[in-house]
Design goal:
The complex is a heterodimer of chains A (about 425) and B (about 150). With about 425 residues, chain A is of the alpha/beta class. Chain A folds into 3 domains: about 180 residues, 2-Layer Sandwich (Aconitase, domain 3); about 100 residues, no CATH class; about 110 residues, Aconitase, domain 3 (2-Layer Sandwich), CATH 3.30.499. Chain A is built from 19 helices and 13 strands. Chain B has a single domain, classed as Phosphohistidine domain (Glucose Oxidase, domain 1, 3-Layer(bba) Sandwich), CATH 3.50.30. Chain B contains 4 helices and 10 strands, in the order ββββαββαβαβαββ. In chain B, strand 9 and strand 10 form a beta hairpin. In chain B, helix 1 crosses helix 2 and helix 2 runs parallel beside helix 3. The longest helix of chain B has 13 residues. Classes of the chains: A alpha/beta (about 425), B alpha/beta (about 150). Chains A and B meet through helix 2 and helix 3 of A and helix 1, strand 6, helix 2 and helix 3 of B.
Chain lengths: ~425, ~150
């Protein structure tokens, strides 16, 4: 890799040994991928995936102390993934003890560390930092030093920014240095598609199921998806963006997708069309049967597969304002139809604090509460990362949550049906 | 015994028992429970990976095509290295992915752990190596399987 004189000086220790190690890490990272130079980070804000003060990862906080002790902080303010705890979310006494006394014992100290490193605000803990209400929305062509698989794939695909699937820690180091190695999704060649996905479903495919199927098939390659225009249209309106948010999160967690192109819709596909497809790209045809096959193959890891659902999470990734409004209308109609005052399964909807604050200004927020739905800024994934939850029958329409936890996946329509049935269904 | 030649990502040598994942290795899903609750054998917690689910990963030669999943992956691998809970080595049939590379490099630069990493060993490597075989990694990226 060819470094500028300034970058070389940093590597040689001009700003201390710790900064030299930061740059060495970035250089080795670039070398592993044949990067020839560093690219300046041009976005206004960064985003970190590490939002939790988890006792098990104390080495990370020790490393951050080392950075802070050396006077190193992020060169750009940044947002962070959602917090792991929220007292509003139902939990047992035993779970509370596990969460607060065993797992997230370092939460307060870590949040203090993030303030020192440069987090934008105590409200800005969300995986959907790119929503207007949060305001960390990079422009097309911006080079980012972000981590959080669902945010990175959204920024690359829907916003046309440029970011590799960086890991936690590495993303902070890029923001400290102000540059990242130029390879992969930062290059024109790396943004070309190795797969053409032809969607031939008879009805609008469930976003998180379609994303799962594609992620498992293409793994870390870039898919060029055709056939979605009949349902999503050709403009990135609220509904299309919400769909792509959920779709992308599933491609990234069920596989390792960092960028997708949607024919006629996402910015680069609109500009370049199938010129984005590499010669010799493989083809994957998805129809109703293929989606059914994918869904049927998800393992059910509940202790009692026939158990009645005890908790439902909707909002991984965090919901948008329009999704909160849509869900309110659907629950209202279903409860009325079934003659019920409230949902029959404890249900938590998750969204960022800025989105929830906007939602609170509408009548729908109090409606949802009346229907028994809890609104929270929590990260459902972090909530479920403990053995107690394995014994709990948790349902979700998030394929990301399904992948990392014992939560059982259902489509959005199925979730609506389950939580508004007269008897909590088995 | 069969030899395979790959590219050295993190240098080093070791001999260890193979643990083979034919599908993508989801670092977060595999490690989260073991790290959180101090599992001494570091058993794999990824229910979606039938090859290695519930199998001990500590000190094994982890043979895999690539890692997948959450971008906490590198941070998790770094944490495993810091706590001495890393595999003996990581051997990739394909070019290494960005998350695995991050974790391996963070472990190399910021911890005392020794975890050689070799990638681009080829599909034949993953076809040949079986869980329980003995794997030897040499300094130049040569991997012997027997």
């Amino acid at each position: 890799m060819i470094l500028t004189p300034e970058q070389q000086a940093l590597l040689d220790g001009a700003k201390g040994e710790t900064m030299a190690k930061v740059v060495k890490t970035l250089v080795m990272y670039g070398d592993a991928f044949g990067a020839e130079r560093m690219a300046p980070v041009t976005s206004q804000y960064g985003h970190t995936v590490i939002s939790f003060g988890l006792k098990a990862i104390r080495p990370v906080y020790a490393l951050y102390d080392e950075l802070l002790d050396a006077g190193l902080v992020s060169g750009q303010k940044f947002t962070a993934d959602p917090k792991p705890l929220d007292p509003k979310v139902p939990s047992s006494l035993l779970e509370d003890i596990v969460f607060k006394k065993i797992m997230y014992t370092d939460q307060k100290e870590y949040e203090q560390q993030l303030r020192r490193l440069g987090i934008t605000s105590d409200d800005d803990y969300t995986c959907t930092c790119y929503l207007d209400q949060v305001g960390n929305k990079p422009g097309k062509g911006d080079v980012l030093s972000w981590a959080e698989s669902s945010a990175v794939v959204y920024a690359n695909s829907v916003l046309g920014a440029r970011c590799n699937r960086n890991s936690g820690i590495i993303e902070l180091m890029g923001s400290i240095a102000g540059f990242v190695p130029e390879f992969g999704l930062l290059t024109d060649e790396g943004r070309k598609a190795g797969w053409i996905v032809e969607v031939k479903c008879t009805k609008r495919p469930e976003a998180q199921l379609l994303g799962s199927a594609i992620g498992m098939k293409v793994m870390e390659d870039v898919p060029y998806v055709k056939g979605l225009d009949k349902w999503l249209g050709t403009e990135l309106d609220d509904a299309a963006c919400a769909y792509l948010k959920d779709f992308g999160a599933a491609t990234a967690s069920n596989g390792a997708v960092g960028l997708y192109h949607i024919d006629g819709l996402t910015p680069e596909a609109k500009e370049q069309g199938e010129a984005l497809v590499r010669e010799g790209a493989q083809i994957y045809v998805i129809d109703d049967a293929e989606l059914e096959r994918v869904k049927a193959n998800y393992p059910v890891v509940w202790k009692d597969p026939e158990a009645a659902p005890q908790l439902c999470f909707v909002g991984c990734p965090h919901l948008t304002l329009s999704q909160l409004n849509d869900w309110t209308a659907k629950i209202e109609a279903a409860l009325r139809k079934n003659g019920l005052p409230q949902v029959t399964v404890p249900t938590v909807f998750t969204a960022s604090t800025p989105v929830l604050k906007e939602f609170e200004k509408t009548v729908n927020a109090s409606k949802l509460r009346t229907y028994g739905v809890v609104l929270s800024y929590i990260c459902p994934l972090m909530y479920m990362n403990n053995p107690l939850c394995k014994k709990k029958a948790v349902i979700t329409c998030s394929n990301k949550l399904r992948t990392y936890t014992s939560a059982r996946y259902y489509t959005e329509d199925e979730i609506l049906d389950i939580i508004t049935r007269k008897e909590a269904a088995k | 015994m069969k030899q395979f030649k790959g590219r050295v990502v993190v240098p080093g040598t070791c001999t260890a028992e193979a643990l083979v994942s034919h599908g993508g290795f989801n670092t977060l899903a595999s490690y989260q429970m073991a790290l959180m609750f101090g599992d001494k054998q570091v058993k794999c917690g990824d229910q979606n990976n039938a090859d290695i689910y519930k199998k001990p990963m500590l000190n094994k030669a982890l043979c895999l095509p690539m890692t997948i999943g959450s971008t906490t992956g590198g941070m998790i691998l770094y944490t495993a290295c810091s706590m001495g809970k890393q595999p003996a080595c990581m051997l990739f049939s394909e070019p290494i992915d960005s998350l695995a590379a991050s974790g391996a490099i963070l472990g190399d630069v910021w911890t005392e752990a020794k975890m050689p990493v070799v990638d681009m060993l080829g599909a034949e490597f993953l076809d040949y190596v079986k869980t329980g075989m003995t794997v030897t990694v040499k300094e130049d990226g040569v991997v012997e399987v027997e």
